[in-house]
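Sanity check

After download, print the first record. It should look like this:
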Amino acid sequence: LPLNLGNKEITWMMLEAGAETDVVNSVGRTAAQMAAFVGQHDCVTVINNFFPRERLDYYTKPQGLDKEPKLPVKLAGPLHKIITTTNMHPVKIVLLVKENPLLAEVEALQKCYRVLDLICEKCMKQRDMNEVLAMKMHYISCIFQKCITFLKEREDKLDGFIKSLLKGRDKDGFPVYQEKLIRESIRKFPYCEATLLQQLVRSIAPVEL
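Expected structure tokens:
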């Protein structure tokens, strides 16, 4: 995967055409590492957020002894859009859920977050472990689970969730609920040995709300 002069669109097209992201060059660096080295951070973001649609479509077919697929076909497109988004702000993710009537239902979100948890597990257990993608899947799964809570318990549903995420505390406007949600998702990441998790905990632990 050449650097293509930092062009995000070309990077995305090459990935969709099947370019391998874990292949290394003559100095042992992947495309993402080379792009980061020369400051092409948009390309790094595209590479790190890429998730082939066929890897998600796998869950739309019954596997093994299952009679039903884990993910209904109609949810694959909307879920893939969220998986591949590069804007990880929790409000953005909730808005993507809210704008799609197929997704914004308890049963649909339950199916989706369970599939995300399976993908997270696969990312951690495959030979070429992908901690970044695993953490992203886990994080989106946590937001989906919180969406379910609001859909079940609050009359204002996802609007209430968005308001809670945006509401700042009185003294300085700091969005405490949002911060707690993000910290909680990191704390719940099930693979304690992950280097990325340990880096995040080291960065966040000393910082008070």
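If your output differs, re-run the checksum step. Summary of this record's structure: The chain has a mean pLDDT of 90.
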